User: Which sequence fits this backbone?
């Protein structure tokens, strides 16, 4: 695609507006409280849009949209959890107590809230360190999502795109703090909402309406390549075969891992502490619910429907389109080279299911017949669809939608990583006091940003083929956070019986179990990490396909819950006086 | 249903919309509830509950 004047103007206007909102944040940031929790007085619309825009990254649209194009509309179960758990449960049952307790304990970050609730310097420091070390994987995935899109649209190289994103975002995070992040998030969220709403309308209109589009997609089931069928694929409007490798990946990794993991995302939880009262949270629930529907709901629906568009235009399913060169696609468009015959499943080159591309040893996979066949890249499906199917002005709008999605998530990740390093790990964990905490937070954020860029640069090189890397990075961090934080977080907000020792034990065992399973059993990560290969000379220690595709969250989260319950019963109870302070103004709590 | 072949996918489609409606209805009903002054009321209520449980003993 050529860069048009329209695109350049759109991007420039977007960047100027972002800079203005960042500058307003900078001007209003004078204290550490402003930098960390935006002065605790944010408007519900800003809070909800900021939460939603942070929650939904380019990974959710490009990466997971690509996964939906591969696995089908069963991905909508993730949208359901995104709304029901990620918004409703999170705001109503977690948000209100987090806000109140955060205020009572004067906590400014998620690790600080946990540390103060359990009176443990270790919890705050170790949580900060865990976030600082592993969030770059997620931040890297977000940056890659944006960079891939820029590569497609502008034809620039990956490193340039990466630095472009990071540099602009870094400026307003370091100087504007949480206020800069939230104001720009809200602006970016509004753009995302418009862009995704139009994408939904255009896609359904182009394919003949809602029901017609779904029926056309249903009819494509006969085109499912044999290799994907062997992985459990039963068509794009059906769930994969129960307990098949694809079902395991879809349900345990994508739907459960990401859908439940959202509850303990430090960059999201901290937003509950940025509003004045529960009234703001009640109002934010409406905006949050609608916003998420229009984000992942649209991405997964349109993602799956790209197959209909590509089959109608190129006689290829979406995955095959990513293997064709731009010249080949152009030739088909211009009718120079005839489009392939009406595709029959046997005529299609074998396509590896995205979920097992990185996991070469997953049993059931059918080997490619012709060795030098190019690899399918699900992450490229949405960008190619936008470029090919949408009018030019929309491509420009969608480009800034994705830029906004990436930057809004990235800014919060940078902010959370920075504060995790400076306030939680350095100041509290190592017990080093600083005269100028605002400056320290800014320096910490700067270091976090550099670290994240290095990881994003190395990640595609480390994970073989780079395929599905966005989805892997995101679900990996979500899963780890879930196992490490969810039991401790629920205990902190809802139970007076959970003890400090139990919280520490749950945090340590939960995160270690998750990491252990990723390193040695869950093939998608263990094959990429190569540690298992180095020690045991094989990609995984799993003895069955179910075990190899069972997500770490399914193993680690129950273990973490069990530990916190058992240890609470056998260790010293928390002092009543401290509990009274924690639960001041909160009804219930046993 | 809805042009979708599998029941699992159709249910996901419907549940997604229902979850959004839940958020809208909840926010609508509680639009003006939860102001900070409620904290005082909650404190009062907690006090009453404590007294009640003492009396019950």
Assistant:
């Amino acid at each position: 695609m050529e860069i048009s004047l329209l695109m350049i103007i759109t991007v420039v206007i977007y960047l100027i507006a972002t800079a203005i909102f960042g500058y307003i944040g900078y001007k209003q940031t004078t204290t550490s409280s402003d930098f960390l929790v935006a002065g605790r007085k944010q408007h519900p619309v800003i809070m909800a849009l900021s939460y939603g825009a942070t929650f939904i990254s380019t990974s959710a649209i490009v990466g997971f949209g690509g996964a939906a194009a591969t696995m089908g509309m069963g991905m909508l179960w993730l949208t359901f959890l995104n709304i029901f758990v990620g918004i409703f449960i999170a705001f109503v049952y977690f948000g209100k107590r987090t806000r109140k307790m955060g205020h009572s304990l004067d906590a400014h970050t998620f690790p600080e809230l946990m540390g103060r609730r359990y009176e443990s310097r270790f919890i705050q420091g170790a949580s900060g360190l865990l976030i600082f070390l592993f969030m770059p994987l997620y931040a890297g995935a977000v940056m890659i999502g944006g960079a891939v899109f820029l590569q497609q649209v502008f034809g620039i190289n990956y490193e340039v795109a990466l630095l472009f994103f990071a540099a602009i975002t870094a400026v307003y995070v370091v100087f504007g703090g949480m206020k800069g992040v939230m104001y720009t998030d809200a602006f970016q969220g509004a753009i995302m909402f418009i862009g995704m709403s139009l994408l939904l309308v255009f896609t359904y209109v182009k394919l003949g309406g809602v029901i017609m589009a779904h029926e056309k997609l249903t009819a494509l089931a006969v085109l499912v390549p044999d290799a994907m069928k062997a992985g459990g694929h039963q068509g794009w409007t059906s769930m994969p075969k129960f307990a098949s490798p694809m079902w395991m990946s879809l349900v345990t990794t994508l739907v459960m891992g990401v859908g439940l993991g959202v509850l303990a995302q430090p960059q999201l939880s901290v937003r509950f502490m940025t509003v004045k009262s529960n009234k703001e949270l009640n109002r934010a629930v409406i905006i949050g619910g609608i916003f998420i529907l229009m984000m992942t709901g649209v991405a997964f629906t349109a993602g799956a429907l790209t197959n209909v568009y590509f089959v109608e235009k190129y006689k290829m399913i979406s995955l095959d389109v990513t293997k064709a060169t731009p010249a080949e696609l152009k030739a088909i468009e211009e009718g120079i080279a005839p489009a392939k015959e009406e595709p029959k499943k046997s005529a299609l080159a074998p396509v590896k299911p995205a979920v097992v591309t990185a996991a070469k040893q997953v049993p059931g996979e059918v080997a490619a017949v012709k060795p030098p066949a190019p690899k399918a890249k699900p992450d490229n499906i949405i960008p190619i669809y936008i470029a090919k199917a949408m009018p030019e002005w929309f491509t420009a709008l969608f480009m800034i939608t994705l830029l906004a999605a990436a930057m809004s998530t990235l800014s919060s990740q940078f902010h959370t990583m920075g504060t995790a390093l400076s306030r939680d790990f350095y100041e509290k964990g190592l017990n080093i006091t600083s005269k100028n905490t605002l400056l320290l937070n800014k320096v910490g954020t700067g270091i976090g940003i550099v670290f994240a860029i290095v990881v994003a640069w190395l990640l595609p090189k480390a994970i073989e083929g780079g395929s599905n890397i966005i989805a892997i990075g995101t679900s990996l961090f979500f899963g780890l956070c879930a196992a490490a934080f969810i039991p401790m977080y629920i205990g902190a907000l809802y139970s007076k019986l959970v003890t400090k020792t139990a919280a520490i034990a749950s945090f340590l065992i939960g995160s270690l179990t998750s990491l252990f399973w990723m390193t040695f059993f869950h093939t998608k990560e263990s094959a990429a990490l190569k540690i298992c290969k180095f020690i045991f000379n094989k990609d995984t220690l799993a003895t069955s396909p179910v075990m190899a595709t069972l997500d770490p969250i399914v193993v680690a989260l129950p273990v973490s819950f069990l530990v916190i319950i058992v240890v609470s019963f056998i260790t010293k109870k928390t002092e009543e006086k401290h509990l009274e302070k924690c639960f001041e103004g909160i009804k219930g709590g046993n | 249903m809805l042009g979708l072949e599998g029941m699992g996918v159709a249910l996901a489609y419907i549940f997604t919309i229902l979850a959004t409606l839940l958020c809208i209805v909840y926010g609508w009903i509680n639009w003006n509830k939860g102001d900070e002054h409620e904290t005082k009321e909650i404190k009062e209520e907690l006090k009453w509950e404590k007294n009640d449980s003492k009396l019950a003993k």
